[in-house]
Design goal:
Elements: H1 2-5, E1 10-17, E2 20-27, E3 30-36, E4 42-49, E5 53-58, E6 61-62, E7 68-69, E8 76-89, E9 92-103, H2 107-124, E10 131-136, H3 145-159, E11 163-168, H4 174-181, E12 189-194, H5 196-214, E13 231-236, H6 242-248, H7 253-261, E14 271-275, E15 278-283, E16 286-290, H8 291-300, H9 309-320, E17 324-332, H10 351-360, E18 387-399, E19 423-429, H11 433-443, E20 455-466, H12 475-483, H13 496-509, H14 513-516, E21 530-532, E22 535-536, E23 542-544
Helix pairs in contact: 3-7, 4-5, 8-9
The structure holds adenosine-5'-triphosphate, the ligand CCCCCCCCCCCCC/C=C/[C@@H](O)[C@H](CO)NC(C)=O and calcium ion.
InterPro entries: ATP-NAD_kinase_N, CERK_C, CERK_PH, Diacylglycerol_kinase_cat_dom, Lipid_Phosphate_FormReg, NAD/diacylglycerol_kinase_sf
GO biological process, one term: ceramide metabolic process
Pfam families: CERK_C (PF19280), DAGK_cat (PF00781), PH_CERK (PF25382)
């Protein structure tokens, strides 16, 4: 309705691109230019939606790889726009900066084109950000965050008229604390340049700040949390970059920068992880016990290897051949709505997610435009029956999204939805080493990961994990951890270094030195650790929703 009421900006004229003559038209929502032959007949037409125009500059201008402006070009202007490249991943295309340099018959006409295009951009792109707060983790991935931002992203933001305040972090959790405590007036969004860890900092900052401002405690698992208005953008420069890959479809800084500029947004499910009555962390990707917890614990000792540390640690943990006892309880989601084995792929605009958003936020008109939101209209204890599974497990994984990444292009659960308010629980029961290797191998191929006799997958609204009777987490140990800051109390937030410290302490406390000395000792540990979006949790018994 709103769109129909806007008086569209129109302009049509003859223009030149190089030596070819075109009829160019700015009509409502599109900029089109059609090549004309010598007899004025139409040849090829290029059409760009105004919403995908990045910027308009006087003269003959180039921005990437370096900015250059040609002289004496007062009849020329350059239009920059989103150009979809033919390469990308199975469900995401690379975006590139398209550029066309137009030459007008007169300077007056050039000025008219520039003015009308800029008016059209303002009118038709209401959700574009104007001011962004950017956090660069200089130590993420291959340590190229600064270079990636300054050479590939900043020139695009500048071209699009976005002003950015850049913070290069000097310590873990600086970005989170900044969002929690500093004045954010005037910022339309926050952006991280790094991996899933720095994204998680922004997520905790944004959710935490929103709750603080609403006077709500994040520790109460039954509480309806306030949805977050501040959008989070991700420029991938980490090791796994799973959140970026699963939402955009490729890990490419230019593609992500262009999505941010045009104001694209995608709501995300957020899972809260509690231990007893305290919030431990939020997760958007993987909450994993057993194999994925062990891989993370092992990989933290080999950070110097960069992204390769996960492959090395994966192989080491696989060779250690472990399984763990536990009790899993889960609350199934409505199987009429979707299933983890229905072979769907969730993309932006997914109908299951739209219905989920309507169902979860019936009175919130802005819900569908949230980038990251906490689905809080949750009545887990009244909706359905909890199911309990006890046994020995190779891996227990809960993933709110597919968790696809370059290592696993379809992800841990290929048909999981980004924003339906559910997660997929993947239970890999103890099995022989070859069976488990088959399962791991299927992560990296297109073969059905769940079509194995020792694997079960359930779409769920909540999960609890506990140790078998007699092996529960030691209460005294818990108290020590709280005092030591490992648990997330009011005013405190988790840290990667903090949780790693706990892993070491925990290993020592429990006599699991083999966890920390190269996985070489003969005595197998009885408990694993939880990997929560790449952070080690300081607790074994947790509840997620
Ligand atoms: N200046 C800093 N010094 C040390 N650690 C930092 C700094 N800034 C951020 N961190 C922390 O570094 C950790 C890892 O960062 P990040 O996620 O960006 O990279 P990664 O681990 O290589 O990638 P991925 O999480 O995708 O595997 C995060 O937990 C973050 O909190
Ligand atoms: C015998 C070697 C086996 C190697 C198995 C490789 C399987 C790769 C699957 C990767 C899935 C990653 C899921 C995403 C988790 C992220 O949240 C987290 C943070 O970045 N990354 C990791 C690696 O924990
Ligand atoms: Ca989901």
């Amino acid at each position: 309705m709103e769109l129909m009421d806007v008086d569209p900006v129109r302009l049509e004229s003859s223009l030149w691109v190089g030596k070819k003559r075109y009829r160019a038209a700015l009509t409502g929502w599109h900029l089109n230019w059609t090549e004309l032959d010598k007899k004025n007949r139409d040849k090829k037409t290029v059409s760009v939606p105004v919403s995908e125009v990045i910027g308009v500059e006087e003269g003959r201008v180039q921005v990437l790889p370096q900015r250059s402006v040609a002289e004496d070009t007062d009849r020329e202007f350059t239009v920059f726009y989103v150009k979809r490249s033919s390469s990308g991943s199975s469900y995401g295309l690379l975006w590139r900066l398209g550029r066309t340099q137009f030459c007008c018959p007169s300077r007056d006409l050039r000025d008219q084109w520039m003015t009308q295009l800029r008016i059209a951009l303002k009118t038709h792109s209401p959700s574009r950000p104007h001011r962004l707060l950017v956090f660069i983790n200089p130590f993420g991935g291959k340590k190229q965050g600064r270079q990636i931002y300054h050479s590939l992203v900043a020139p695009l933001f500048e071209l699009a008229g976005i002003s950015s305040h850049v913070v290069v972090t000097e310590r873990a959790n600086q970005a989170r604390d900044h969002i929690l405590k500093k004045d954010l007036t005037g910022f339309d969004g926050v952006v991280c340049v790094g991996g899933d860890g720095i994204f998680s900092e922004l997520l905790h900052g944004v959710i935490g700040r929103t709750q603080q401002e609403a006077g709500l405690s994040e520790h109460d698992p039954s509480l309806t949390l306030q949805s977050c208005d501040l959008h989070i953008g991700i420029i991938p420069a980490g090791s796994t970059d799973c959140v970026c890959f699963a939402t955009v479809g490729v890990n490419d800084p230019v593609t992500s920068a262009l999505h941010i500029i045009i104001g694209d947004s995608q709501p995300l499910d957020v899972c809260s992880v509690h231990h007893r009555s305290s919030l431990v962390r939020y997760s958007v990707s993987l909450v994993g016990y057993g194999f994925y917890g062990d891989v993370l614990a092992e990989s933290e000792r080999h950070r110097w290897m960069g992204p390769l540390r996960y492959d090395y640690s994966g192989a080491m943990v696989y060779l250690s051949n472990r399984s763990y006892a536990g009790v899993i309880q889960y609350l199934p989601a409505d199987s009429q709505l979707s299933s983890p084995r229905d072979n769907t792929r969730c993309l932006s605009g997914c109908s299951v997610c739209s219905k989920g958003t309507e169902r979860l936020f019936p009175h919130s008109p802005g819900a569908s435009s949230l980038y990251s939101s906490h689905f809080s209209q949750f009545s887990s204890d009244t909706e359905g029956e909890w199911v309990s599974v006890e046994g020995r497990f190779r891996a227990v994984s809960l993933t709110c999204m597919s968790s696809s990444c370059p290592r696993s292009p379809l992800g841990l659960s290929p048909s999981a939805h980004l924003a339906d308010g559910t997660g997929d629980l993947i239970i890999v029961r103890d099995t022989h080493p070859l069976g488990f290797l088959t399962f791991l191998h299927r992560h990296t191929s297109t073969q059905d990961q769940f079509d194995l006799p020792f694997v079960d997958v359930h779409r769920v609204k909540a999960v609890r994990f506990s140790l078998p009777t007699g092996e529960e987490e030691d209460k005294d140990e818990e108290r020590e951890r709280v005092n030591d800051g490992g648990m997330m109390e009011e005013g405190k937030r988790p840290s990667r270094s903090g949780s790693h410290k706990h892993l070491i302490e925990r290993g020592e406390e429990r006599g699991q030195k083999d966890f920390l000395c190269g996985l070489c000792c003969s005595k197998a540990p009885t408990v694993s650790v939880w990997n929560c979006d790449g952070e080690i949790l300081p607790h074994t018994e947790i509840s997620c929703r």
